[in-house]
Structure formats: structure tokens, C-alpha cells
Amino acid sequence: MSILVNQQQFHLTNGKISYIFQVLKNGQLGHLYFGKALRERDYRHFQRTNNPTPASCHTYEDDAAFSLETIQQEYPVYGKGDFREPAFMISDGQKPIANFVYKSHEIVKGKPYLKGLPATYAHTDEAETLLIVLEDTYQQVELELSYTIFKNEAVIARNVRLINKTDGALSIDRMMSLSVDLPHADMEMVHLSGTWARERHVKKRKIEQGIQSVSSIRGASSHHHNPFLALTALDATEHIGEVFGFQFVYSGNFLAQTEVDHYGTARVQVGIHPMGFQWNLSPGETFQTPEALMVYSDQGMNGMSQTFHRLYRHQLISEQWKNKDRPVLINNWEATYFDFNEEKLLHFAKEAKELGVELFVLDDGWFGKRNNDRSSLGDWTVDLEKLPDGIASLAEKVKSTGLQFGLWFEPEMISPDSELYREHPEWAIGIPGEHFTLGRNQRVLDYTRPEVVNYIFEQMKEIIEATNLDYIKWDMNRNITEAYSAGLENQGEFFHRYILGVYDLYERLTSEFPNVLFESCAGGGGRFDPALLYYAPQAWASDDTDAVERLKIQYGTSMAYPIYSIGSHISAVPNHQTLRETPLSMRADVAYFGTFGYELDPSSLSNEEKEIVKAQIKRYQSLRHLVRDGEFIRLQSPFESNETAWMIVSKDQTEVLVGWYKASSTPNPRTNQFVKLRGLASDRGYNVDGEKYFGDELMLHGLPLPVEFNGANGEQAERGGDFQSKVFYLKAE
Ligand code: DGJ
């Protein structure tokens, strides 16, 4: 890993990738290259040298060959001849333009910490960071662009700081965390979009002249679009070809866009959504953007995903949790909804323990007077009608069975019918006295106010201490409307300050209670983003636990997130979201590829099913090291066919787990069916179900699937009908 500086040309490389840019003749920064590693040499010839056409380009007054419109840039300004969208817009109230030129640079070992913001981290021997300081020629303002290259990964992490050195206030109207100009746009854009119960479906489209984007202005990263996009070569697949992946380490309003210009270049930008954003920066103050990540892969989408997976596993998820097994949990939500009492819960816990479950999670409804979703959010004291002996006593009783104990909170919300609301109506977001919009009958607490964050922290702290809590499911069931805080002078700062308040609470809770495992959740998977993984190493992927739907949700989520962060549980049938009835075996076969658990009432299981569940839990316990540390490879997409396949290979290629699924039956199928594996050791023999195959045959010809029913082979058939699945475990000799 090195950062080479030669005559104002900067080359970050680690043998896997190169990221190269230079100081242009006007002092601004020009981008030269991002991609597979290049040797050390001068790359200035990568910048266009042909004269721009005067009829369509605006050139510098002293040089007809120099136009920002045709130059690849690093952090582009508006108003100097480039009419693509700029990386930032600032103004001192007089001049809306800026002209940032190179001032100095510094190279530091490791990666500086971003105050108040979640970000990837690195020890001094794991990364190097280049800090470039630019100064504005119009006003006393400095920009610091930060680029971190990691030792072993094809990733550049970027962020930007703006420092106001003037003696007046500055207005920031746009400030992207990342901007990069790629030299051509013959690519497709892949993104993860959906809605509640069908989060992170894979979408793909050819990029064309104009702007194509994904974004959120909901106050959360959202169910609808994930802060992720990839640009793939037209011939790229899951396994081959060039892919550029981008992720925003942020949980609030975001914009991720690709602008293809009239010359067919592609500008990618990722950052806080400028819509509604306006930040006042007082003299001497600094504005710090969140982090954005860029990944390069020449091994298709899987190559990109595996880089994100490793990066998040090693440099984002906290040291505390990254190497730890997560408990097999059972959650009472779909089993009881709001209708429970202590007796019911203790019976539930006892039965769960007998099945082999490790953690019991009491979901919504244990506090205030919460018998439905119309009350009590904000009142984090136990409901003594449901739990007359109190929450500490319940926790103790659950723990005495040998289970860990977890609780659901929705810390950012307030119900109009709550003690907290009656006492502090001004703590709800909205314009006082004006109409407000409800989402799931609730309002959002004003986390821009430190006193609100403090109050909720104290409430949660009391419960965590009293119960000696092991786990928190942090939910968030609505988005932000009427974004207004009476406590703020500038409403343009609202959304960002809100999310900083959320991070503040997460930071305080995780520092004070490092042994509590957090799982983030937002009405299912409405805030599944890298920033929250920094605090909560696992996230509830979706309220939709239907095994067939989960194939798509988990396949899509794995594009950007390690599978050991994907909360995936087995629920009862008919499924509560789709009414589909899939077999218990398929539900488990899908859930194994995530953090495993159950969302059902153990008493509803027959004795035979109980034995199956016991075996499933044992199986997961014996395999979870693979789910945690192995390399995940997508083999067949549920978005492209009726069959899905994926696999995990251990780092030393000795253990392999393959998941194969067929959603609906098809008549008269092929007699010989195989699934081609990847990433194995060619010459090693792998044992599976009493048979031995070599790595090369498994990769070149495939792993045989059980014989399928074809209308005539009833006695021989090992599978058939809808909802087929099989998980294979392979062990190298
Ligand atoms: C939405 C979550 O996604 C569910 O799992 C459950 O916790 C409910 N909220 C509870 O209100």
C-alpha cells in the first residue's frame, strides 16, 4: 500500500487498485484514473488534450485548450465552465462561486476518526490516508479532501471537510462526500430499490445522457432506495467484468447519482441530499461530510460484494462484535403481537430454550400502556398490567432458564397518546400548532435537541441496567414529515442534525454498554445502511419472512452487505406478509444464510416440528462460523429465474455451504441437474452426503441436485412440487 506523489500527481495504490489524480494547470484537481492497479509512472496523458470546440465549451481566457467542461475532475466547482452538477455549492451571501486550488497535502498512517459520524476504521498498518488541502481564491475558505486506501482491499474511502476561515458566515447548499468522473458511460447502473416487505430488490438499467439517481428525502436511508449504486461494464456479470461500487456510510437523506454528459463521460456523486439541506457555517467552524466508499472489481458483482463484505466485517463492524458468534434468537412479535403477559412469555421462553434457542427477544408492547400501536412510544417504563412483577423480574426469570434476554425499543418516536407527549409536546417534530402527519399513529422525536437524546438515553440506560440486557432491537417505523424544530435557528440543518442525534444516542449506548448486541430495524429493512452497521452489527432485513420473498431480499442485500449482518428468521405459515405456505425446511434453508432465528410461537409446533427445529438450530450453530467468516458467492439470481443458488467458502477452502432453491415446480424437468460451484480448491476432494467430488468437477460440471419428480419417477424422485430447497455441506479431505 502506498501513496505516491510526483510533481503534483497523486497515485494511491495497493497492488489491487490505483486511484490517480493531479493538480491541473489552474490549480484545481483533475481526476486521472480509478481502476485495476497500474505501475508507478506519470499518467498525465490520461487527461484529454484535444482542443474543446469553442461552440460548445467555455474555455479559460488565457488558454483556448483548457475547459473544465471536458476535463475529468476530482471535486468539481460550479460556474467555471463545467455545466455538469458540481460537488458542492457554497456562498458567503455575495459570491455563489468558488475556485478551490491546491494548497498542500499530508499523508498519514491509518485513518483519521470522523467526529460524531460512523465510518470505517483502520489501525496504522492497515491503511494510509491522503489529505489534500484546497483554498478558495475568492474567499478565505479551505476544503480538505480525504482519501484512504486500505492495505488489502480494492477500496477508497472518501470524505470532505469545509473550513470557514472568513470572518462571516458561509452557507453550504450542497456538499457531496464523493465525486468521480469516469471516462466513459458504456455501463449499466445497478441499485437496490423496493419498499416495505420487498426491500433491496436488484434493479439494473443502462445509463444514458442525463442524470440517473437513487435517493431518499424521508429522513432515513429508506426501504425504497439503498445508499448504494454500482456501475458495471456492459459485459460484466456476477462473476466477470469491471464493476465500480459506491456506498454512502450514512442513514439519512442521501443522493447517489450518475450524470452522463454530452461527451459520454460519467460523473458519479454520493452525498447528503441537497434538497432541503442548507448549513450555516460560522467563522472558524468546520463542516464534515459523512464517508463515502468506492470499490473496484474486475471480477463482476460478486467481486465487488466480497470487497464490501470484507471491508465491513473487518473495518466497520465494531471490534467488539466482528469476531463474535451472534446468538440464535426467538422473537415474540408475530407469535403474540401486543397480546401477552408474563406467564405467556415465560412459557414461550421455556419452550424456546428446550428447542435450543439462545436469546429471547421481547418485542413491542412491554412498556407504557401499549396494547396497540396507538400509544406509549416515549414512555420506556414497564407496563405493570401486563408484567406486574416488572421488567427486571421478567429478565431474571428468562435468564434463569439459561436464555439471554433482549428488548425492543423505538427510541426516536413519540405517541401523541403518551405521558411524554403530554409533558413535552414540543419534543415532537413539527411546526407548533400546525397540522402534522402521522405514520403508524406516531410522531418523531426531535433528535436535533440534545435534551431529547439525553432523556431517551437515561430512560434506556435504566432499563438496560435493571434487566442486565443482552440485546436491543432498535426499531424506527415512520419517516419524517413537517421537518421543523422550534429549537433550531436554521431549518436547513434539520435532517442532518437529526441523524447526528441518532448517532449520538447509538454512540453513547454502545460505549456505555459494549456487551449489548444491537440489531437495527426500521419497519423491517427501512434503514439498512453501512452507518448503522458501525453500531449495530446486524439489521432486521425485512418484515417479510416468506422464504420465497426472502430469496430476493437476501440476494439483493448481499450485493452490498455481509450476510452475517442480515437478520433472517423462520416464521410461521401461512406467512403473515404473503399468506404463502412454504415448508419449514425451506424457511430454514434460506434463514441459515444470515443471522438465524425464529419469529413464531414454539407451542404452535407439533412434536415432529420441534425435533426438526432442534436439528436446525444445532446445524446453524455448527455452521455459523462459516456465515460469519466465509466468502459468500451468489450463483443464480432469483431475479432472473425460478431457481436461486448461493454458497459460502471458508477462507482455507476446506468448508463449503451451498444453498439451492426452486420457487415453483415445473413439469417434465431435465433428468440431470447440477449447480456449478465456485471458489473451491481444484485438486481437493470434497465430501458431500457420502459422495466425494473434486473441486474442479464441482466447479466445471457441478454439484448434482437430488432427483426431481417428472411425472413418472415417483419412487425415485427425491424432490418435487413448489418450494424446493437443499443446503449442502461440503468438507475437503
Ligand atoms: C416493525 C418491525 O419490523 C417488526 O419486526 C416489529 O418489531 C414491529 N415493528 C413492532 O412494532
> Largest beta sheet, briefly?
10 strands, antiparallel
Distance between the termini: 36 Å
Number of helices: 13
Quaternary structure state of the chains depicted: single chain
Percent of residues in helices comes to: 10-25%
Q: What is the rounded Rg?
A: 27 Å
**Shape, per Cα inertia axes:** globular
Mean pLDDT: 97
Count of strand segments: 38
Poorly predicted runs:
none
Ions, cofactors and other ligands present here are: (2R,3S,4R,5S)-2-(hydroxymethyl)piperidine-3,4,5-triol
Beta fraction: 25-35%
Structural class by secondary-structure content: alpha+beta
Briefly summarize what is shown.
The chain has 733 residues and is of the alpha+beta class. Helices cover 20% and strands 32% of the residues. The strands form seven sheets. Strands 6, 7, 8, 9, 11, 12, 14, 15, 19 and 20 form a ten-stranded antiparallel beta sheet that branches.
Set down the secondary structure blueprint:
Blueprint (H helix, E strand, L loop, with lengths): L1 E5 L2 E5 L3 E7 L5 E8 L51 E4 L8 E10 L17 E10 L4 E10 L4 E10 L5 E13 L4 E9 L2 E9 L3 E7 L8 E9 L9 E7 L4 E7 L5 E7 L6 E3 L4 E3 L2 E7 L2 H16 L3 H4 L6 E3 L1 H4 L5 H14 L3 E4 L28 H10 L3 E6 L3 E2 L4 H5 L19 E2 L5 H18 L3 E4 L19 H19 L4 E4 L9 H6 L2 E3 L6 H11 L8 E6 L12 H8 L3 E5 L7 H23 L1 E6 L6 E7 L5 E8 L11 E2 L9 E4 L2 E4 H6 L2 E2 L19 E9 L1
Parallel strand pairs: 21-22, 21-30, 22-23, 23-26, 26-27, 27-28, 28-29, 29-30
Antiparallel strand pairs: 1-2, 2-3, 3-4, 5-10, 6-7, 7-8, 8-9, 9-19, 9-20, 10-17, 10-18, 11-12, 11-14, 13-16, 14-15, 15-20, 16-17, 24-25, 31-32, 32-33, 33-38, 34-37, 35-36, 35-38
Helix pairs in contact: 7-8, 10-11
Bound molecules: (2R,3S,4R,5S)-2-(hydroxymethyl)piperidine-3,4,5-triol.
The site of (2R,3S,4R,5S)-2-(hydroxymethyl)piperidine-3,4,5-triol (DGJ) has 11 residues, from loops.
